[in-house]
Every structure is written in C-alpha cells, then in structure tokens.
Specification:
mainly alpha, elongated
Length: 373
Amino acid sequence: MSKPNRGPQLSDKPNSAGFYEIRWSEDGRSRRRSTGCANAADAVGVYHAFLVGFKGATKPAMGEVNVAACIARYWEEHITPKARGKDTAFYNLRNAAAFFAEFDGSEFPVSQAPEYFEALALHPGGYKPSEITEDLVERFVKARRQGRIGRKATNGGIRRDLAVLSAALTRAARKGRIPPFVFPTDAIPEEPEPRDRWLTDAECRKLLEAASGDGERLTRAYRFVALALGTASRRAAIETLTREQVDLKHGIIRLNPKGRRQTNKRRPQVPIADWLRPILERTLKEIEGDYLLDHPGSIRAAFESAVERSGLEGVSPHVLRHTWATRAAQAGVPLLDIAGVLGDSVKTVTNTYLHHCPEHLRGAVNHWNPQSP
C-alpha cells in the first residue's frame, strides 16, 4: 500500500551543501528544492513562502513566518549572546511556544536549549503573528493559570511569558520578517501586588536544614541558601560566584566579577557576615573548580526540592533577598546601608521596606509637642 502524500515537507537536517531542503512528491516522482538557507529559522520562512505559492523565493514571504520561527530566531539572535538570563528566558519562551506555536517541548530541559530551539525552528504548525488576538491571549492566560501549560502560574509569571513573546515578535517585525505587529496588551493580566513574603528565624533554619543533605560535603542547595541569606544577592550573581570573588583576608565578597559591566541590577561588594564565614571557608576547601556552587548552571531544581522538603510555602530564591532586607529594616539598620548591600537605590528600598521599620519615623512624629507651653 502506497504512503499518503503529505505534501511538501522541510528536511530536518541540512543537505551536503549545508542548506535545508523542501521535499515533496509530484506525479509519482520525488522532488526537492533547496531553500538556500543554512539557518533553520530562515529555512522555515522560505518553506512557508513555498507553501503559499511563492516558488523560488529566497526570503521569507511577508506575514508567513510563524510564531515558532520568530521565537527560535529571537533566541538565536537576542538571548544567546547574553551572558545571563538564558534560563528564565528559556522557560518563558517554551511556555509561549507550547500554546502559540503548538509545540510541546516539555521533554527538553534547559540544558538542551539549543536542541529545543533547533526543533522549534523547523516546526511548521502553530499560529502566525497576525492571528494573535486578544481572545487568543486570554485563552493562553487561562491555560497558564490552570497549569495546562507549564506549572500553574500567577499574574507575574504569565506577564513575563507574554513580555518575552511580545519582544520576539516585535523584533521580527523590526527586522522585516513579518508585517508591523502590535501585541494585544489589553488581555495581559494586571501586574500583581508586591509580595511581602519573608522568612522568620525558624523558617530560615528549617530551609537550611532541608537543603543540607545527608553527605559529608555541603550541597549546592545549602551553599546557595546560605549565600543568599548572608549576602542578599540575586540568584544569578550567586550561581556565577567564583572563588576569585571571595576575599577572606579582607572579609569581602565582590559580587561583580572582573570584566563584567555593571547593569541596573548592581552587584556591590558585600562584607562577609560572621556566621557565613565558616561556611565560605569550608566551601572553598570542598569545591574542585572555580564556582562556589560547583558550576554556573541553574540552582532552580535543587532549590525547589529543598523548599519542598522544608514544608515551607511561597518561597522563591528572591524571597531570601527580601528576607535579608526585611530583617535588616526591622533591626533598625539605616536605609542607606540596606541600599548599599542590596545594590538598590535608597528610593527603591524606602518604597519596599520602610513599612517594616516604623521606629524609623518615631523621631519625626516626636519632633514637636503642640501642648508644650
């Protein structure tokens, strides 16, 4: 029995000349045509153009590049060159692609991001940017909240998914790969209220105990939790922290490594807390390479496992930073000093943490007494 004719298909690998091919059957004979593209995302554009009658096209037909190709190209051109932030962007784009590109890549972990986006670039299905409507975005929001795509998400997580998707499509339009595009922002959920979750002393001990493991060597999760509670650093800064940045002699951790340009999320120099010092000394003896967490890969899975074992709820890596700042404010540490450790502006610290230290204002309300003679 002869196989059904599925129509033109794009090859999943380049030919001997290094180009992807379009292959189909015509009058009982096999046909093929080179896309002239060594890049998978470009090849998909040529393939789509071919399907709508633009035979012989060498560039993607305007409006026919699908969301899958836009996302894959955005990863290749914009996210890959970045030093940090790839892990978060990967999950955001994978969530968006699962719905808008109808591409289930859940079997791909973040360590296989290149393979994932290579497969996504060759995916012919899903929506085109022009088909993304307010109703479609609302359906995505509902699917994310229910956990039918990725884990159950709140407004904050959903907004990040849509923001990265919007950036990918906007870039595609700016590069002339699709017509001018405006993302339907009315369907994007409202920005969530700032969370006020911080850990008590008992909760900190419980989390450290859950992260400690059963071996003689300190676990990655334990080292991460201790460093986060002791330095108030962001996750990315701790994941890439090296022994060169730890100065035990002067009691300082230089969170910004040599050669790295400071960004808006500043990485300051932080004094080593007395309780953290023995943990750092042990860590430096135990690690074999340069990284305090053994390697610069994501701590996400190990951290979430530790949180689950601890029985605590609502604890993310950022909660540890928030915990340090909150406890410092409650202890009466000047807001300027808190800002210095966090690498934030005094205005940000004031807006976020002032309500935790009402004693800070006691002198202000007592500066005069209207009943005094």
